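Pilot study result, target chain (294 residues):
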Amino acid sequence: MILSIQQVTKRYENHLALNQINLDIPEGQIFGLLGPNGAGKTSLIRIINQITAPDEGFVYFNGEPLSQKHIEQIGYLPEERGLYKKMKVGEQLVYLARLKGLTKEVAIARLKDWFIKLDIKDWWNKPVEDLSKGMQQKTQFISTIVHRPKLLILDEPFSGFDPINANMLKDEILQLKAEGTSILFSTHRMESVEELCDGIALINHAEVVLVGNKNEIQNQFKKNEYQVVVEGEFPADWTNFAVLQRDNQTVNIKLNPNVTTNVALTELITRVNVLAFKEIIPTFNDIFIQVVGS
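Predicted structure:
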């Protein structure tokens, strides 16, 4: 495990931000940290970055108690970006890279590679305030990964990006994972969770209410529902399933208890021409609403 969080509690005056959090984040995966606003995600991220400390409990990094020496092995892209507006882009990135332990020479060499890779070669001597929001996002992303951290924490990383640059960033995140980087990914964009994450933890009211492998969680929330595409009239009376919704030739059905897909299909093909039949897998947006709403 890249991170092991054990019995972590955090209070702010009369507010309980985290309540006995237990969470293991596997090495080499993209792990989604989800939850509504005010659930405790930011409090946990701040503890991992050692901006604050837990009131109770322990955090372990690669099997060792989390300490200052681990700062250089962590990269953090916050939701609220924090670049110095008057500084030139190259100057600022060299400064931030040196804070993470790189020499000036190594920092410049790595930064030049990233400037070429992200097609921003002309930005080196521009002040940050002259850049668009999307350009500033690229700049801050580079500052987050230039020291090649073992753990990368991304908080709403796609905020401010147009679709083309969002896809570029997505590719870079997947490449970092392929190279062995462990990524903690906090977002409200459930489509990004489905596309990128291997596992997730959902925090609500300061507690972990759902955790596990992404596919296993989706299977856990399946409702034995299927989508059928048919040709011709679709009768109203069926023995082995109930009709939930119909949109032209696409019909959503729910199998009755103990009815298998083979039995349902057999009944279907004796009465209509079936063009397609697939299981309805719940989206993480549906799961999020169901768990948080309850």
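One observation from the pilot: DSSP finds nine helices and 14 strands in the chain. A full batch analysis is planned for the follow-on phase.
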